């Protein structure tokens, strides 16, 4: 567990040994799984990592129903089968066959035997573990009930899912979602200042401290109301290699605009790199833009800037004065415009949904951007680090 990155202390390990000594495991691998996770894993963020470590260590001892090969997973996780799944949806009420009436134990026993016999990919049919068929196991097929192996749900009727990673979304290194982005943005409230006006709001922490120090006699403490002073500028890459992240960008936009933690929020878009103009909408249509110079003149240097993009532009788009093939450069390269951004605004972070580790020579533009801005991967941990950087007052 330590080798795989889980922080397990000696005292926790001894507690697990004590639990086993007291018979809490009941000679069951399943009970051992839950008890050891309860004692050794400190956060739900590590549940997915724990599951993967547990599965790897106890390979061959683990419940054999859950043991499917990587080859079989590849057979079953085929993204090209979406349309076939929709076609089978139309046949839902026509599905018949005695396999639909097998009870759970019968299906699992048949799955175990079939898994041992199967040696190739199968699509359609009524016997093998495959896709778009009518057997009791596989995925996106026509069978109601049974076991789903890999893939994704169709009718949501499977009584068991083999190879499922239930806690994948709990990880700190996964690409974040709307809720996590909103939570991280709350940290920017630390930029807020207190107004020089009468104390009219209850100070809960101060009241608790004063009451405790006063022998338990209630002593009310008040504080001045907080005023949001944070001004935020969001610049988001749109189109091209960012198309797979369109939904995420929309969620980030909604998160920021629903938040009430900011004095002002400005949101603009760009394609690949920031040049002489930024766009008002993610369609990045010519003419529907503002001049980047306008930003410099109208947004003061205290705006906190969050740039979201994969920095996957070609080197000529970054360094050439004619690199912007969708609009004007105004005589400067993208790299020079980014330098002007850095010169004007005090705090800028770049969030990258697919950032390469370190300085990747095969991603020349990304490496150059990393040299200009504090770049973070668009994950939960990455966003936390980015917020810390934005809140810092040191250079």
Description:
With 395 residues, the protein is α/β, with parallel strands linked by helices. It has 14 helices and 15 strands. The protein has helices spanning 10-21, 29-40, 47-57, 70-76, 82-90, 104-117, 178-185, 204-213, 246-258, 292-298, 315-319, 334-344, 364-372, 380-391, and strands at 130-131, 137-139, 147-149, 160-162, 193-194, 201-202, 222-223, 226-227, 231-237, 264-270, 277-279, 289-291, 304-308, 347-352, 374-377. Strand 9, helix 9 and strand 10 form a beta-alpha-beta unit. It is flat and about 70 Å long.
Layout of helices and strands:
Blueprint: H1 10-21, H2 29-40, H3 47-57, H4 70-76, H5 82-90, H6 104-117, E1 130-131, E2 137-139, E3 147-149, E4 160-162, H7 178-185, E5 193-194, E6 201-202, H8 204-213, E7 222-223, E8 226-227, E9 231-237, H9 246-258, E10 264-270, E11 277-279, E12 289-291, H10 292-298, E13 304-308, H11 315-319, H12 334-344, E14 347-352, H13 364-372, E15 374-377, H14 380-391
Parallel strand pairs: 1-2, 2-3, 3-4, 9-10, 9-13, 13-14, 14-15
Antiparallel strand pairs: 5-8, 6-7, 11-12
The fraction of residues assigned to DSSP E strands is 5-15%
- Main β-sheet, in a few words? 5 strands, parallel
- Rg, alpha carbons: 28 Å
Amino-to-carboxy terminus distance: 38 Å
Mean pLDDT: 76
Order of helices and strands: HHHHHHEEEEHEEHEEEHEEEHEHHEHEH
Number of helices: 14
Look at the helices and sheets and give the structural class.
alpha/beta
Instruction: Give the proportion of residues in helices.
Output: 25-40%
**What is the 3D form?**
flat
Poorly predicted ranges = 62-67, 91-102, 152-163
Number of extended strands: 15
Q: Which strand order spans the largest sheet, edge to edge or round the barrel?
A: 10-9-13-14-15
């Amino acid at each position: 567990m330590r080798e795989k990155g889980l922080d397990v202390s000696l005292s926790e390990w001894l507690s697990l040994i004590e639990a086993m000594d007291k018979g809490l495991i009941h000679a069951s691998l399943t009970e051992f799984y839950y008890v050891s996770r309860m004692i050794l894993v400190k956060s739900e963020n590590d549940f997915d990592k724990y599951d993967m470590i547990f599965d790897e260590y106890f390979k061959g001892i683990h419940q054999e129903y859950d043991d499917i090969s990587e080859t079989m997973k590849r057979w079953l996780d085929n993204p090209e089968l979406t349309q076939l799944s929709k076609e089978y949806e139309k046949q839902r009420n026509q599905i018949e066959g005695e396999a639909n009436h097998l009870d759970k134990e019968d299906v699992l026993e048949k799955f175990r035997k079939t898994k041992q016999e199967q040696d190739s990919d199968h699509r359609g049919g009524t016997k093998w573990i495959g896709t778009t068929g009518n057997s009791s196991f596989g995925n996106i097929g026509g069978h109601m009930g049974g076991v789903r192996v890999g893939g994704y749900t169709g009718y949501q009727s499977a009584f068991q899912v083999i190879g499922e990673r239930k806690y994948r979304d709990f990880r700190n290194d996964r690409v974040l979602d709307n809720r996590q982005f909103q939570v991280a943005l709350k940290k920017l409230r630390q930029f807020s200042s207190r107004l020089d006006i009468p104390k009219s709001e209850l100070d809960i922490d101060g009241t608790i401290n004063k009451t405790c120090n006063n022998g338990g006699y209630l002593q009310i403490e008040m504080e001045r109301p907080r005023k949001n002073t944070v001004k935020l500028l969001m610049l988001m890459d749109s189109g091209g290699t960012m198309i797979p992240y369109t939904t995420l960008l929309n969620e980030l936009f909604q998160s920021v605009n629903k938040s009430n933690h900011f004095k002002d929020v400005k949101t603009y878009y760009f394609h690949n790199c920031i040049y002489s103009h930024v766009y008002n909408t993610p369609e990045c249509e010519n003419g529907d833009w503002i001049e980047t110079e306008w930003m410099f003149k109208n947004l003061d240097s205290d705006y906190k800037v969050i740039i979201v993009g994969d920095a996957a532009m070609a080197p000529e788009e970054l360094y050439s004065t004619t690199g912007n093939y969708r609009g004007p450069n105004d005589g400067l390269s993208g790299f020079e415009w980014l330098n002007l951004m850095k010169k004007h605004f005090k705090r800028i972070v770049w969030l990258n949904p697919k950032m390469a580790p370190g300085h990747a020579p095969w991603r020349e533009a990304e490496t150059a951007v990393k040299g200009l801005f504090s770049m973070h991967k668009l994950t939960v941990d990455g966003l936390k680090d980015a917020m810390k950087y934005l809140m810092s007052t040191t250079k």
